[in-house]
Design goal:
The protein is α/β, with parallel strands linked by helices. The chain is 35% helix and 14% strand.
């Protein structure tokens, strides 16, 4: 299994399915256990070609105060308290994540989870190869530093933050950790209207921080509803987001939590196919002739051609030459190497000059 951080370093597209806690609702819909629902989502992600599945690890009491108002679309998720919402989805602990990690390894899809407290940051350490830090913790510098000291690569979401905050978070990480760091542009609005996606920020993140710090990569954590042709994600990729993280569900019609702006396995397959097509179109970076152009190059370019008959021993002058297709003779680039030379043989009018004809 190719690790996502290796793909990122090698400039290969990475699609991360943000399972989060959506498996709770899938379990209810399917009439199965939460664990079976989580595994079902992992299986379907693998089938779709997704590179990694990411969960969210927290306990409601340590994450949100009792007085913690909502910040999501209550038409989609009617719960009005953060703690009340999170309490519905916080039953998994170390043993459950161990089981999910083992299952992911068996299927050869990478597992990791966002830790929202110190305890989970500790016990997840042996279960994953990369840490993901939520935008909501971007200013939680003590917690950022604590996770960075685990000395693993980090995906850092930078939603709802300004340049100074991002820079301070990076400096906090770099004090104790020199591993690859992926800055994930996102918009902390659920769902994000397309006109709020603000994808040009991807370019700015790259310009501001990739040159300032070593081993910085850029990604995008998407909260828009999947559009018909996945233009949001394709645009993000074209602007430089090598890593795309998107909430993931098996049923986008389910109410509540992160289903309504998530991708399903069919979306994931189409996204991966679209990126493969983009890469095919992009081609390579070298400034050289493509193999597929060689025939056209030979026939469409011009050669030096005699405009009148030239006798053997006659000096070749400019008035005796012209330039015509195909490009199978002496190139017009070498005209100064031809003028003044002597014809070795009789050269008929409209003959494509070859090196052996002159001397």
């Amino acid at each position: 299994m190719e690790k996502i951080i290796d793909r990122i370093i090698n400039n290969k597209f990475v699609l991360i399915a943000e399972v989060g806690v959506n498996y709770y609702d899938i379990a209810t819909k399917e009439g199965i256990s939460n664990m079976d629902a989580a595994k079902l989502m992992i299986r379907e992600a693998k089938k779709a070609g997704i590179h990694a599945v990411k969960f969210q690890t927290y306990k409601a009491e340590t994450l949100a105060a009792a007085d913690s108002p909502y910040y999501w679309d209550i038409n989609e998720e009617p719960t009005r308290s953060q703690r009340e919402l999170f309490k519905k989805f916080d039953s998994f602990g170390y043993e459950e994540y161990c089981e999910l990690k083992k299952y992911c390894d068996e299927l050869e899809i990478e597992f990791f989870s966002t830790a929202f407290d110190y305890e989970s940051a500790d016990y997840l350490n042996n279960l994953m190869d990369v840490y993901k830090i939520s935008s909501s913790d971007l200013s939680n510098l003590p917690f950022i530093e604590y996770q960075a000291k685990k000395n693993k690569p980090i995906l850092l979401s930078v939603g709802a933050s300004n340049e100074e905050e991002i820079d301070l978070a990076i400096k906090t990480i770099r004090k104790v950790n020199d591993k690859p760091l992926v800055l994930m542009h996102c918009v902390l609005e659920y769902p994000t209207p397309y006109e709020h996606a603000n994808l040009n920020k991807i370019i700015t993140l790259k310009e501001k921080f990739s040159n300032k710090y070593e081993k910085i990569y850029i990604g995008y954590s998407d909260h828009t509803k999947p559009d018909k042709d996945y233009e949001v994600i394709k645009t993000a990729y074209n602007l430089g987001a090598i890593t795309i993280e998107k909430h993931y569900t098996l049923d986008k019609t389910l109410k509540g939590n992160d289903h309504y702006h998530g991708m399903d396995p069919i979306d994931a397959q189409k996204i991966i196919s679209a990126i493969e097509n983009i890469n095919s179109i992009r081609g390579k970076y070298e400034l050289k002739v493509l193999e597929s152009e060689q025939k056209s190059r030979r026939n469409a370019r011009r050669s030096i051609v005699s405009s009148k008959e030239i006798k053997a021993g006659e000096t070749i002058t400019a008035d005796k030459l012209t330039y015509k297709r195909p490009g199978t003779g002496i190139s017009p680039q070498k005209i100064n190497e031809v003028i003044g030379k002597v014809a070795k043989i009789d050269i008929k009018e409209d003959t494509i000059l070859q090196p052996e004809m002159i001397g």
